Amino acid sequence: DKAFCTGGNTKEYAEYYAGNPQEYKQYMRLFNDMIDSILRCDKPVVNRVNGMR
Question: Domain of 24?
Answer without folding.
Answer: 10-40
